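Subject: Interface between my chains keeps coming out wrong

I've been trying for a while to get a sensible model of this assembly. When I model each chain on its own everything looks fine, but I need the whole thing in one frame so I can look at the contacts. Pasting all components below, labels as-is. Any help appreciated, I'm running out of ideas.
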Amino acid sequence: MRVLIVEDAADMAEAVRGHLHRAGMTCDVAGTVAAAEDHLAVTTYDALVLDIHLPDRTGTELLRDLRARGLRVPVLMLTALFSVDDRVSALDHGADDYLVKPFDHRELEARLRALIRRNAAQKGEELKLGRLSWNPATLGARVDDERIDLTRRETVLLGLLIRNAGRTMSKERLYEGLFSFSDTDVGLNAIELYIARLRKKLAGSGVAIETRRGLGYRMDTDG
Amino acid sequence: MRVLIVEDAADMAEAVRGHLHRAGMTCDVAGTVAAAEDHLAVTTYDALVLDIHLPDRTGTELLRDLRARGLRVPVLMLTALFSVDDRVSALDHGADDYLVKPFDHRELEARLRALIRRNAAQKGEELKLGRLSWNPATLGARVDDERIDLTRRETVLLGLLIRNAGRTMSKERLYEGLFSFSDTDVGLNAIELYIARLRKKLAGSGVAIETRRGLGYRMDTDG
DNA sequence: GCCAAGCTGTCATAAACCTGTCAGGGCGCG
DNA sequence: CGCGCCCTGACAGGTTTATGACAGCTTGGC
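Reply #2:
Try treating it as a single job with all components included. I did that and got this:
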């Protein structure tokens, strides 16, 4: 769950970030459209929270550009105006939902979750590999019918690997998925650590995490 | 049991909310079709109580749209008119039941419960797990044949957990099911509290509520 | 109405355990 | 062989969860 918040009012942005973070989402903040585009060029997000009024350009313009480029990431617009025109305009430009300021943080969270879930549902659930299966909805992993308990980070890491089974994931890519920019100063070593822990818990599952020296890791059926 | 009340007369809406609340249901109120749609976009309800006459559009139109979208949530219509036409019209548009104002609140509650039960019946009744059983219709819980007394919130929480037995439910998800938007400022901590209380009452029932740190809670047979 | 009983949710404190660093050693590749 | 990358056990924080005590509200009985 990685979310980009595009909002120039620093206190507002921080408040939203705090709430979503507590809700288990990883958040980055951009104060301008330019900054937002920089983030988007580098990282893949599960959703955007987008203010309409920004210093350099309007959020609507950013949204239109994104859709023109074929990006289908869920977007929730924020607006200070309660006007049907604004709402229609936002939805016309490809927003998935909108919210009028001031809003209840729990409502923002709930709607965002709904958007992300809706989006994720289209991609299909319950991934399997060898005798291992993983369900992103229930956060459960099983080998045959026996459950394996994973911690939060292990769960995220397994998700990244199994969704890209057969492909080599660079350590940096995994790092990005696992930690947000605000997780200050976590060493790359942490990835190695979680790979090791995951390997231990996945022993005998018919699935292996191969090390590809200098390139990254690849999950695949073992043997 | 989460119910959305769509009614523009505030006093009427509040009265209904009060009664259903006392009957152990979690209620949200929407005064317009637009507001109702916003709620529906965010949350899943077990039933709708829908007035026909609303400020922006008619309840019938909302109902038709819902059915067109394939939503099969049980809907009980309220109408001030005693007219066979109105009744037929409502049922034609996909309402499951209707009630003519003024009505007895106990009747509303009974019919609503019947609708929910009918809907739940399709999904299978009387949930069992270990030596614990829970009846969604009567909201009663038993261990073997001995009844255990649960408070309202405990009942709702048990329902959420047992319906999703074996699945990890995030604290936020439980929170959504347990508290409505009008329960202002209830801390997430409250979930932990009710988990603790439920665990105490469920001791020796063969059922355990496991903590998955950072992820949520999971109910399952213990041992 | 009024009172008692019980349900609710907050707070503070303690416990549990997840996280990430470090360091020592292993292994592959040039 | 040597360098650099990777593995992994142990450990110190730090964050999340558990739980008892308490005050405000509701509810139901009288």
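Reply #3:
Confirming on my end. Chain B has two domains: 2-122, 127-221.
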